[in-house]
Every structure is written in C-alpha cells, then in structure tokens.
Amino acid sequence: MLGLKPARFTRWDAVSAALTLLGFATALTELPSRQFIAVGFIVIALIVFLLRTLGHEHADPAKLIVLKDEGTTILNTNPMDMLKRGDAKDENFAVAVWGMNAHLWFEETLAELKRAGVSDGDRSDFTTLITFQPLPSPLQGEDGNHHSHRLGMLAERLHRLRAIIAKLESS
User: Fold this and answer.
1) Statement to judge: residues 81 and 146 lie in one domain
2) Which terminal residue of the chain, N or C, has fewer Cβ atoms less than 10 Å from its own Cβ?
3) Which residues are CB-neighbours of 155 under 8 A, at least 6 positions away?
4) Are 19 and 41 in contact (CB under 8 A)?
5) Considering only CA atoms, which of 68, 34, 89 is closest in space to residue 159?
6) Does residue 94 sit in the same domain as residue 129?
7) Which has the closest alpha carbon to 99: 125, 84, 79?
8) Cα(2)–Cα(122) distance, integer angstroms
9) For the segment 130-160, what is each residue's pLDDT rounded down to a tens digit?
10) Do 67 and 105 touch, CB atoms closer than 8 A?
C-alpha cells in the first residue's frame, strides 16, 4: 500500500546520528535531569559510531590473490597431467577432470567475491562472458577444441579477477 520495502541491513550511521540528535533535543527540553539523559544519548551514539567504524570489515583481497594464482595454475596445466596414476590416458576424461577443477575454482572464487563485499555488478561481470578468445590447447581433435574454449573462458575470468583485486586494493 505504501510501497515500503523491508530493510535488509541496519544503517548504523543513521542510528548514531539519530541518537545524537535525540541527545541534543533532550538537552533543550524542560525535563528533570535532562543533562544526564542528553549526555547518555550522545555517549551511546558515539559508542555505536565507534563500534561500527572499528567493526567495519575492510575488503581483504589476500584470498582472492591466492585464488587468482590457483586459477593461473589450472590455466597452465595440461589436462593429461591432471590424471591420477591408474587412470586411463583418455583425452576426453582428462578434459572433464580439468573442467571440473576449473568449475570448482570458479565456484570458490565467486563465493569469495561475495565474502569480500564485491559489488553485484563486478560479480556479474566476472560470471557473464559475452566474448572471449579461445587459447591453444595441447590436445587435438574435438577434445582439444572444447578445452581451447574453456581455456579462453578461464583466461578472461582471470583478467576480470585481476581488475577486481586492483579495485579492492585501491579502496
């Protein structure tokens, strides 16, 4: 009816400002012991402000840097080298194993981007690939072609992750 949306988070800076204003308004009224009440409101407002300021988590790109290094390692690894001893030397299976590692890296990186407080727009840019350049694959045939495209997608995401890390470090 009124078009109000539920609050998803508490604006502690607004709470602190409201308590400060309430403290000053109380000081101007004709209440008994108004000075104590006014000082109390102002002190509570300062405590809320300080706790919010000190408790604010700054984005730490350290984990993202480690994930970028892991992604680069996956990018530079031949899929045949990812097969375990005893696995059949099948290129199709090797590309599937490589693809699973790349996908797990992608999911972990996406979760870490959210934890780091990266904006929805930057996360969307990281996930949505409109264009990319396929990279040369050490494999031949259809498996090599598939792997070549996946390499290009991973390389593009690594470039975008590098830009996000630079943005976090500069803020």
Assistant:
1) yes
2) N
3) 75, 132, 133, 135
4) yes
5) 68
6) yes
7) 79
8) 32
9) 988 989 988 888 888 889 999 999 999 999 9
10) yes
Q: Name the one residue in this structure whose structure tokens are 């000190």.
A: 54
Task: State residue 28's pLDDT score.
Answer: 66
Domain region containing 49: 12-55
Based on the structure, what is the number of domains in the chain? 2
First to last CA, the chain: 40
Domain check: are 77 and 50 in the same one? no
Tokens standing for residue 149: 């495209």
My answer on whether 109 and 156 are in the same domain is yes
- Do 38 and 114 have their domain in common? no
- d(C-alpha 72, C-alpha 6), whole Å: 42
Angle at the Cα of 60 from the Cα atoms of 17 and 13, rounded to 5 degrees:
5
* Cβ atoms < 10 Å from Cβ of 61: 21
Domain identity same for 162 and 90: yes
Nearest 5 degrees, angle CA 99-CA 104-CA 106? Answer: 95
Residues 164 and 90 in one domain: yes
